[in-house]
Amino acid sequence: MSETTFDYIIIGAGTAGSLLANRLSADKSKRVLLLEAGAKDDYHWIHVPVGYLYCIGNARTDWLYQTEADAGLNGRALRYPRGRVLGGCSSINGMIYMRGQARDYAHWAEVTGDDAWSWDNVLQAFRRHEDHWRLDQPGAASEAFKRLHGSKSTGGGGEWRVERQRLRWDILDAFSQAAQQAGIPATEDFNGGDNEGVGYFEVNQKAGWRWNTAKAFLRPTCYGRPNFELWTHAQATRLLLQRGADGAPRCAGVQVWTGSEMVMAHASQEVILCAGAVNSPQLLQLSGIGPGALLRQHGIEVVHELPGVGANLQDHLQIRAVYKVQGVPTLNQLAGSLLGKARIGLEYALRRTGPMSMAPSQLGAFTRSSPDRPHANLQFHVQPLSLDAFGEPLHTFPAFTASVCNLNPTSRGSVQIKSPRFEDAPAIAPHYLSTPEDRQVAADSLRVVRRIASQPALARYAPEEYKPGPQYQSDEELARLAGDIATTIFHPVGTTRMGRADDPMAVLDSHLRVRGVSGLRVVDAGAMPTITSGNTNSPTLMMAEMAAQWIRRSQPAAAAA
C-alpha cells in the first residue's frame, strides 16, 4: 500500500472531471489529484471525428458495458458505451453542442428548491467556458445571439470550442425543407432556450478535429501546474469513509488500483466523484452508500443508507427509421467502394472536410409528437446513411436514417452492483418504454417521421420506408416495432440525482453534495434530476462549472507561498 495526500481528489477525467481539475488547480495553494481508469487520449481515432466508430466497442476507450435484457425492447440487451479514456465520453461521443431547453432548468430549480439552476443562472456557466464560431468575426453575431452566447465580438474567450460542421448533403437539405413543409420552423441556433426547429447541429470540433475536454481543459494548462497530478490506468475501487465524533460519515479519500498496487489517496478537503451515471453509483454502492438491502445482499457494510443511489436512470432511446431513396448520393454509395473510401480519406487529409469530419448525426430537428404537446418533446438525428445496427456495414442501397427520440421519457431504470468486486460491471436496467406515455410517444414519433417523408421536398428522391415498414400502422404495432429497432443514444443520467432535503430518493443537495456524508460530491450527469431536452455532454460541463464555483467558495484559498 502506498499513501499520499491532496486537497482535492477528482475521480474520473471525463467531461466534468477535466473542467473541475482545471478550475480547482488554478489555485496554486491547492493540490489536486485527477484519477482516470483509462489511458491517455493518444489513440488517433479519438481525434478524427468519424473515429467514434473505432472507439465505441473498443476496450482501449470504452468500458464495454451492456444493459440487462429489456422488456421494453422485446427482450433485447443493448451495448452501452461509456468513455474509459482521458476526456471520458467527450472522446467518443457525437460531438453535438446542445444546452437543452430553458424549461429543463426551471424544473431543476423547482425540484431542488434552488434558483441557482434556473435558465438565466446556468446560462452564465455555459458562457464561461464557451468559445463559439459566431464570435470569431467582428459583427458576425447579432445582438440577440450575443445575449445568449456572450458579449465579446471576438473569440468568446472560453475553452470549449463550438463550430459549424464542415459538410452539406443534398438529402439532408431536402429533409430540412420537408420538415419545414411539415410545420417545423428553420433555425440556426438550437441553444437559445427553446430548441424547436430544424437545422444543422453545431459541434465540438476545431478545424475539423474532435475537441474533447482533455484538449480543452487539461493539456493547455493543468499539465504545467506543479500542484496538479494526473494518474491514468488508476481505477477507484472504494471510497475511504470515516466517522466523526457525531457518528456521521466523512469521505477522507479513495482506494485506487493502479494495475500493480492498491494506493490509498487522501483528501484533506473534498473527494469529487465525476465517474458518470453508471460508475458513480457503482462506486458509492461498493463503498457502503446506497440502498441498504442491495448492499447487505452483497455483504457490504451499510455505512450510509441512501435508497436513491442507482435509481432514477433516464436515457434517450432513439428509434431509427430508415428510408431508401433514389437519384441522390448518400454515404452508403460513397463509402461502398475502395475508390470512394480513398477519395473520402484524401479530402479529409487535404482539407479536414467531408465524411471523415462528420459527427455521427449532422442534421437535427426538434418538434412535438402531437399538437397537444406544449413544447418540443422529440429530437431527430438525421444521417445520410443507413445500416442494420451500430457497427455493422452500411446498406448497399442509397438511404437516409431519421432517428427520433423522446426528449422527456417517463420510464425509469436503475444501476446496481452485481457483486462486491470493483472489477465486475454493474447491472444496467434502463426499463425503456415501460410506461404507456413513452409507448404512445414512440408510436406518434414514427408518424411524425412519415409526415416529413411525405412532403414535396423529398418526393423527387422517391423515399421508401424500409424500417419499421409501412405495413405497421396501429399504436400497438408501432410501439412494438420501436422496441425491435430502437437503441440508446448514449445519454444516461439521474442515478445520483439532486433534490430537496425532504425528498427520500434525493442523493445530493442542490450544490451536489452527498446527503449525510461530508467531504463528498457527485458532479456528473447522474446528478441531473431529469434528463435535459437534447444531448447531455455540454449540460454536464455546465454542472461542473457551477460546482467549481461552490467548491472554491466553500474552501478559502490559503495565503500564496
From TrEMBL:
Q: Which GO terms describe its molecular function?
A: flavin adenine dinucleotide binding; oxidoreductase activity, acting on CH-OH group of donors
Q: Which cofactor does it need?
A: FAD
The UniProt entry's coiled-coil ranges are none
Ranges for domain Glucose-methanol-choline oxidoreductase N-terminal: 276-290
Pfam assignment, any one: GMC_oxred_C
Keyword hit for Flavoprotein:
yes
The record lists FAD as bound by 85
Q: Which UniProt keywords apply?
A: FAD, Flavoprotein
Q: Which InterPro entries match?
A: FAD/NAD-bd_sf, GMC_OxRdtase, GMC_OxRdtase_N, GMC_OxRtase_C
Family per UniProt?
Belongs to the GMC oxidoreductase family.
Which protein is depicted? Choline dehydrogenase
